[in-house]
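Submission sheet (multi-component)
Chains listed below:
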Amino acid sequence: MKTRTSLILIIGIFLIGSMSLTAQTEMSATEIMQKVSDRPDGDEMEGTLTMTLINSRGGERVREIRQYIKDFGTVEKKIMFFQKPADVKNTSFMNWSYDDETQNDDQWIYLPALKKVKRISSDSSGDYFMGSDFTYDDLGDRKVGDDTHTLLRTETLEGLECYVVESVTKDEDYMYSKTITWVVKDRWYGLKKEFYDEDEDFLKSLTLLNVEQINGFWIITGTEMKNDQKDHMTRMEFKGVKVDAGIKDSNFSERMMKRGL
Amino acid sequence: MSTIKRKTGILLLLLLFVTASLPAQGVQLSGYARSYTGILLNDANGFSILQNTFNLNIEDSRGNVAFKVNPYIYHYSNEDLTIGLREAYLDIFFDSMDLRLGKQQIIWGKADGVFITDVISPKDLSEFLLRDFEEIRMGITALKADYYIGNSALELVWAPAFTSTKLAEEASLWGRTPEFESPIPGVVPTLSYDYSQKAVPATLENSEAFVKFSGVSSFIDYEVMGGYIYDDDPTMHVTVDLTPDTNGVPQPQLTLTPQHHRLSLMGGSTSMDIMGYVVRTELAYYAGKNFQANQTYQMGPMSMTLPSALEEKDYLHYLVGLDFSIGSTKLSTQFIQEYVLDYDESIIQEEISNMSTFLINRMFMNDLLTLQLFAYYDITNEDALVRPTVSYDLADGFEILGGANIFMPGVNNDYLAYFGYYDDNDMLYLKLKYSF
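Outcome: structure written.
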């Protein structure tokens, strides 16, 4: 099944391993990240994503999105319908992501004021999504081979034993010089992730808030991204999540972008 | 209180009453209230616009059927009210087909801010091109059927009654008055209009039909279209009376009779992502479009040339556009060309006319602040419209936007100059918009 990281689940959905501790310690950092990437997480997922943007004064802005994701084998398709705030209501966004690492994603946006579906450049992975502290790349499907991984240590975080893996980008122009991920042993999901900017200064951290088992899969349903440089924070909640509940193939189309929910 | 104002008041009360009761029935309401103030930068510093707008979308769906009604109200400082329905339609959805019947905006093509194959919904140019695009596009009564085959679609549109482009009134800030020069010193041609041929009767044989086949794929998005239409822009039939005065000097009197003519067109558009650059193309071929042309009149030894003739020629209108990003800054540019085939030197429009557009957009402060610059540049005449804006979200759905419309003069700034004609209409404006 295709490697998949959904919009909100990106960092934190990890394979629950059954290997012994001895075997785990023999794993390389790359193997750990590959297992995370290959994690089975169902072929379909839908739910309502709520992002709460919180500024340094505690002021909040809320974005709400209904999203559907389906794996078609060599391509994963995602369609999102913006519900809030009111000025973006009925805007929709569709992304096709390919297994072929050489093929860029295809992306379209439907703007109800223009009544037109526009193809947009997928070369915007460094942009922040809807004003949040998550970039498109944070929410997307980063390939394991894009980074060089090093197992720094094991340590206990919030009472859970974790692998601490440093991932250094191979692309000099990438927006993060490195990330550090705390992977929970035995459970294999990310508890925390730190991001460092191009100057190798600490930028922001992602923290797991909630995880649920849905239809046999561990699904992260709450995360928080705190940007220290901007003193800004985004809390993400994923509600009404259904896995493998049956989504029509035809839902991932220009027709549905225009028609809406 | 006049009868009209009384009726308007009753209508508004009815609208408010009906609207207030709809949410209880599960009907969705959305829309916006907007205050829009513009001031001219010329010597008089008059207000170009003082407008308050209420725009409401009323929508509901049950199973395979849905409806939408979009009433709007514009209120002006002189207490004038404009009330209308931008859209009012019913949808029926089948497994592989959708039907939409009623007043609707239908937008085709891949161009931004330029109308090439986008010829179904006529334009409201009462404020030139300055309205938001949602407001420039007028709804038309039509039956639209879409049949879907995978990621492709065949769309048929039948518009029983023709609706023309809405031009600005001549006396308004955006009105254009034709100017005709006389070769005789001291003699200015007089103009009059005859609107008797302007309307196209709503009959079956006068209806318009459009067809489009479109598709979306990883490699390319495409549209192929055709239409049997009326030209949205009226052809100006000119009759000339050269009766001389008592001194025997011809006194040209021109009568302009606007009339819409039939046109056939076909075209298409594409959009592709090439290495992070989105390349867009669009082309329309018009068969038999009328162009204004010069005609020479001989009166004894004296001759004069007036734009009173028409030449019917085939015509191409096409575009190439490029969208890309530099960091977090979005950029877009388009090159547009109009080409009159089998050109005759008497035609007033150039054989080849070139235009371009530019867009730069960047967001700051977690998308609270947006800076944008959009510009049209007429390469042929060297005139331009430059539109910088800055907007700030005071709260979710509450935006304050300030901007300017700068018209830059070109080589010629007569009534044929698209932007330079409005050189005196530079303005600053402020919009407050509350969306719900």
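Remark: The mean pLDDT of chain A is 86.
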